Amino acid sequence: MRKLIILLICLIFVGCKSNDKIAGNGGSAASQQSESSSLNPYAEENIHSPPQLLNCDFHDQRDFDIYTAQAQAYEAGGEIISGVIPHHLLAGQMIASFFKTAAESRGSIETVIIIAPMHYDDTSAVLCTTLSDWATPFGLTHTERDFSERFITELGASVCDYNMQKDHSAAAIMPFVKHYFPEAGTAALLIEANAPSDLPERLAPLLAEFAAKKNCLFVFSVDFSHYLEPAETYRKDEETRAAVMQSDTGRIAFMTNAHMDSPKSIITFLYLSELLGLQLHELAHSNSMEVSGIPYPHPVYDEGLTSYFVFAGVQ
């Protein structure tokens, strides 16, 4: 029985790593992508085009049930206003634990805003958002169009539903949002690695305005060290931890996939925490070897490890 469980973990992990290779910008995608999507991968949707429902192609109900059943609330020390979570679903328990903690720490959350890296660039856009709602396994989650439209008008984001549905950095998180906050709306922004360097300075104040308008939870969906052996992964994570907890945005700006897959997302998280007067807390840290339980070396680590942090901005 133990051999069978290890074999299943290996198959899941290999699938995630293979899709991560395709993504090319860090992170890992689940293997359940819909091959029959009717969304045009090359057309940039017009803001006035009628929205369509987006599917959560990365959801597996059996895995999700395990993640939520094993979720444990973190010691946050206050109300969670913002946070950093993984998007690699191997770390699904960490994702579920963050949302469980946020749900228990807040009286009500009206909108969950997801900021995440863009792993696929089929429209040549550097910022992607959507005006469409999400067809989650637990029911419809509506998109807060007024927030998404401000991403478009003030940041120059493109409406690109194909990218949004195809990219696990946001799509894989939507079922968790609906499960833990069934009445909340969402808004999502994907950031390409070559987005303008001043984006965090423009995005963070905009998010702070959103916080003044509604009870928001800001979720920065970011995976950390990629493609390294264990010793180097732990060393890079120590550097990352120090930079984040010291709000060293200058150092973070020059970090690569060896440290994290979206420095601009993390810098925005830190700027927003400062604007809202939040205290930073590290809630969890792990990596693909620790989560899977498969000893190193093993063929599933041929492309190295992926590491995960959960940080929170607490009020």
Description:
The chain is 40% helix and 19% strand. The chain is α/β, with parallel strands linked by helices and 315 residues long. The strands form 2 sheets. Strands 2, 3, 4, 7, 8, 9, 10, 11 and 12 form a 9-stranded mixed β-sheet that branches. It has a 3-stranded mixed β-sheet with strand order 1-5-6. Helix 8 (199-213) packs across helix 11. The model is unreliable at 1-46 (pLDDT under 50).
Number of helices: 12
Approximately how much beta-strand content do the residues carry?
Answer: 15-25%
Cα gyration radius (Å) = 18 Å
- Residue-averaged pLDDT: 88
The helix-and-strand class reads: alpha/beta
Report how far apart the termini are: 46 Å
Helix content: 40-55%
Shape estimate? globular
Report the order of strands and helices: HEHEHEEEEHEHHHEHEEHHHEHE
Low-confidence stretches: 1-46
**Biggest sheet details:** 9 strands, mixed
Number of strands: 12
Brief synopsis:
The protein has 315 residues and is of the alpha/beta class. It has helices spanning 2-23, 61-70, 92-105, 145-155, 161-166, 168-171, 174-180, 199-213, 230-245, 249-252, 263-275, 288-292, and strands at 54-55, 80-85, 111-117, 127-129, 134-136, 139-141, 158-159, 185-191, 216-221, 226-228, 279-287, 305-314.
Give keywords.
12 helices; alpha/beta; globular; disordered N terminus; 315 residues; 3-stranded mixed β-sheet; 40% helix; 9-stranded mixed β-sheet
Give the SSE map.
Elements: H1 2-23, E1 54-55, H2 61-70, E2 80-85, H3 92-105, E3 111-117, E4 127-129, E5 134-136, E6 139-141, H4 145-155, E7 158-159, H5 161-166, H6 168-171, H7 174-180, E8 185-191, H8 199-213, E9 216-221, E10 226-228, H9 230-245, H10 249-252, H11 263-275, E11 279-287, H12 288-292, E12 305-314
Parallel strand pairs: 1-5, 2-9, 3-8, 3-9, 4-7
Antiparallel strand pairs: 2-12, 4-8, 5-6, 10-12, 11-12
Helix pairs in contact: 2-3, 4-8, 8-11
